[in-house]
Amino acid sequence: MCGIFGYTGGKQAQNLVIQGLKHLEYRGYDSSGVAIQNGAKAIHFEKTQGKIRNLEEILKKHPLQGKTAIGHTRWATHGTPNDLNAHPHLDNHSQIAVVHNGIIENYFDLKQNLKKHGARFRSETDTEVIVHLVAKYYKGNLENAVRRALKDIRGTYAIAVICSKEPGKIVAARLDSPLVVGIGREENFLASDVSALLDHTDRVIYVENGEVITLSDRAVSITDLSGKPVKRVPVKIQWTITQAKKGGYPHFMIKEIFEQPEILTAILRERIQKSKIIFEELKISAAELKSVKRIVIIACGTAYHAGLVGKYILEEFTNIPVWVDTSSEFRYRDPKVGKGDLVIAISQSGETADTLAGIREAKMKKALTLTICNVLGSTMSREAKGVIYTHAGPEIAVASTKAYTAQLATLYLLGLYLGNFLKTLPEKRFHALVKELFRVPSMMQKVLDQYKKEEKDWAAKAHDFNKRYHAQLEKYYKADPEKRKRSPNGFFLYLGRGINYPNALEGALKLKEISYIPAEGYPAGEMKHGPIALIDENPWVICLAPQSKTYEKMISNIQEIKARGGMVIPVVTEGDKEIYKLKPFYTIEIPKVSEILSPLVAVLPLQLIAYCVAKEFGEDIDQPRNLAKSVTVE
Ligand code: F6R
Fold this sequence. Notes:
Number of strands: 26
CATH superfamily of the largest domain: Aminohydrolase, N-terminal nucleophile (Ntn) domain
Structural class: alpha/beta
Oligomer: single chain
Shape: globular
Helix content: 25-40%
CATH class of the largest domain: Alpha Beta
Bound molecules: fructose -6-phosphate
Number of helices: 19
């Protein structure tokens, strides 16, 4: 939800800020802008609607000179995504500029009050009150003015502020929106996420809630809201810049899909040593784990789907009952959790507002909290009692792929760890599962290699779908022109059973996110209770049917769909002869894997289907409309 970037040092700042913002574009891409200090009386700035390339075009014609600058890429909350609402926002005299990520809840009252005192508002945003407040309190010291302004504000923020009267200085602050300082040589940086800093440095400071930062080229000072100095030591980040680049792939999404076998291998090597599961960073004691009577998993979107798979894993390995909830439902319904409950929050970013609020709610109610997250030093990793990092590396594509399989891998490892520790998982099974887990990366690789071999075929199928999709729509509209006003008749249905049911949800989510084609994930057993009414020759029905205890049932479902003319694409275990007798439209085979581990392999074709269809439809795969990678607002 919005990305901010700041630079102060000896170099021209404009292009550094643009480059930083491009790394953050996944956080929002409704508009972008940059404000620069250049010794003039007023701050110079440019901002515009749309992606960062629009801003770049403007800056090519009107470059901004100066060595201290702040920039912003926006995901709109208050006010439509137009030029005026784009950040930065400036005070009446254009001497102070602000960029902001978060929401100011009391902005309306503040705005009325500031207007009475002469503030001229140009936008509909909540952010603009910040700059007018800072201007109101400015008496020659920007840091003090920011600190004073923050006292009036209720809400969440990561802000960066510059003032034309204080050259070379950026003042920043955070409350519940992420902010990281990058330490350079005679230059310093600020960003919403470390991936934007990797081009310049691997030494960072994660800004904590309630801290105010003042950056100049040679110094970084940290104070709390009362002005008391805070001592912090920079940490070294392990992620590399190559991980954050496309590396020859046309899109981040396909690069990240192909990274999955390697990531899984690295996770297993790190976590399994001499047949023991190691979670060095866990911070939860054996006694605390022994007291767990129930596990509650909270998460959003893809991470929620990983949580649903986690239920099957943890219940089977530990015998502890597991509940799974979307974070937004959990936090608002006075959840009955407390002592004896382990609340696991799963999140790629570690910043999702609802999941974070869920952790706080659980902590307040005395439950034990653990987060499984990808981003080192993220808010969740600091607020939950325990943390397990998924080590998937930076995930840039908005649609999550490798973070999902890394979350699954971590849940398997956690299940094995707990099952072994609580003695609910027999030794023999533990070792057999560990052994098989190590074979899963090569199974994943096989699926990807097969895709590479058949890529043209997949593209042809996606093209065929595209043609049918539009032909069908035309036929539909021709028969009854009034129908144009209603929703289109093309969609995908994803069916799965047992531990692959969450994968059906995930496959449908991937497709709708990046191709905007309606898609629904359903437990196959529920098909007769409604969705079967949708079946004709139009939708693609993706059926997850690897070998499992419910395979026969899945075959019956496929027969039912075929009987109604449906276009079935089954995902089956290699060597399955039965399936071809049903004459599916297209069959995808995956290597033989035990049912419990199958989601790790079976999800790959679903990610690839979504990718191929979105590519065929010419959509913006890495940055789909209306979405943002990290949802730091409710
Ligand atoms: C889907 C996707 C989202 C996220 C969700 C949670 O591809 O990326 O559904 O999974 O917004 O985000 P995190 O995992 O950062 O909490």
